[in-house]
TrEMBL record:
InterPro entries: DNA_pol_lamdba_lyase_dom_sf (IPR027421), HHH_MUS81 (IPR010996), PHP_dom (IPR004013), PHP_phosphatase (IPR050243), Pol/His_phosphatase_N (IPR003141), Pol/histidinol_Pase-like (IPR016195), PolX_PHP (IPR047967), UCP036978_PHPhdr (IPR017078)
Organism field: Sinomonas flava
PANTHER family the record matches: PHOSPHATASE YCDX-RELATED (PTHR36928:SF1)
Gene3D superfamilies: DNA polymerase beta, N-terminal domain-like, Metal-dependent hydrolases
Protein name as it appears in the record: PHP domain-containing protein
Superkingdom of origin: Bacteria
Pfam families cross-referenced by the UniProt entry: HHH_8 (PF14716), PHP (PF02811)
Domain Polymerase/histidinol phosphatase N-terminal: start-end pairs: 100-180
Length: 340
């Protein structure tokens, strides 16, 4: 087995299972360290122990490399694979119908990996499409994209797609902030060029219901909006602590989503689990579409939609109302419906 691929796959599974970041980084650092060497040199140094003296190589990563160059699947990787294969998704269900993901971040904003690495991880997972939706300018804490940086990213996405071959399309997109007046935080002409626009509230989350409802309705009615992202903004666990739900008139907001064909995101991040079940039910009753998304900020997190799919299935959301089960051609027809 290729030792670089083994190290990267271990990092993926650890990241996906929410292991501490230092463990994930150790395997990625090791992959980078041997990536500059010839394969025969890696094998020789691994077998005689010299590789341990290379910066970025530790005892566990050396063991993985040794087993890989000897032609074996490293034991540590085998354990992680077995753990994943034992999960319910192996028995079918809604998760097996997911084709794509409309919400992910790269190191262009607050993600930890370049777009190419995110695209290759999505391709490895069997996704048919992945939208690259880095943040917009007003979210400075997340290094939001100026118009100029977003335009540069569009060219990069085109280059990445040219090198991906069959099996995955990286879609242009943005997670655009819904500003206090309900406008979207990017130039309309640029939003019109994107494949996917996820609109989310990231500021003044404790606003009263009236202003928050008006803010959300204005964004939903904007013809560029495709997906309403993590609608309550809540945090239920994790290193950032907890945060209560934003308050808004759910009946009006979901009615507007249904009327405008805007999908309500089922955000799959474990710390968000947004919207809560009662609001999934309210959106379902209102006739809304849904988008099960990872909101991934790293490659291993691209497998989070398995968690969102489980919540959607538990709430009885039909697959045909989930846009991320649709084939690419149908999805792009939908996102282009109001661009005109």
């Amino acid at each position: 087995m290729d030792p670089i691929e083994a190290l990267k796959e271990i990092a993926f599974w650890l990241e996906r299972d929410l292991a501490p970041s230092f463990k994930v980084k150790a395997f990625r650092r090791a992959a980078e360290a041997i990536g500059q060497m010839a394969p025969d040199d890696v094998a020789a140094r691994a077998r005689d122990g010299r590789l341990r003296r290379v910066a970025g190589i530790g005892d566990r990563t050396l063991e993985v490399i040794r087993q890989a160059v000897d032609g074996d699947v490293p034991e540590y990787l085998a354990v992680l694979r077995e753990r994943a294969e034992a999960e319910p998704r192996a028995r079918g269900g809604l998760v097996t119908l997911l084709r794509g993901d409309l919400h992910s971040h790269s190191d262009f904003s607050d993600g930890g990996s370049p777009p190419e690495e995110m695209a290759h991880a999505a391709q490895w997972l069997g996704r048919e499409y992945l939208a690259l939706t880095d943040h917009s300018p007003s979210l400075t804490i997340a290094n939001g994209l100026s118009a100029e940086r977003l335009e540069g990213q569009l060219g990069l996405v085109e280059e990445i797609n040219a090198g991906l071959g069959d099996g995955l399309r990286l879609l242009t997109g943005i997670e655009v902030d819904i500003l206090e007046d309900g406008s979207l935080d990017q130039r309309p002409d640029l939003l019109a060029r994107l494949d996917v626009v996820v609109a989310s509230v990231h500021s003044k989350l404790r606003s009263e219901s009236g202003p928050m409802t008006r803010r959300m309705l204005a964004a939903i009615e904007d013809p560029h909006t495709d997906v309403l992202g993590h609608c309550t903004g809540r945090l239920v666990q994790g290193s950032r602590g907890t945060r209560p739900e934003s308050v808004f008139d759910a009946a009006r907001v979901f009615a507007a989503c249904a009327e405008n064909g805007v999908a309500v995101e089922i955000n799959s991040r474990p710390e968000r689990q947004d919207p809560p079940d009662r609001l999934i039910q309210a959106a379902l009753d209102a006739g809304c579409l849904f988008s099960i998304d990872s909101d991934a900020h790293a490659p291993g997190q691209l497998d989070f939609p398995r968690l969102g799919a489980a919540r959607a299935e538990a709430n009885g959301v039909p697959a045909e109302r989930i846009v991320t089960t649709w084939p690419l051609e149908r999805l792009l027809e939908w996102t282009g419906r109001r661009r005109g």
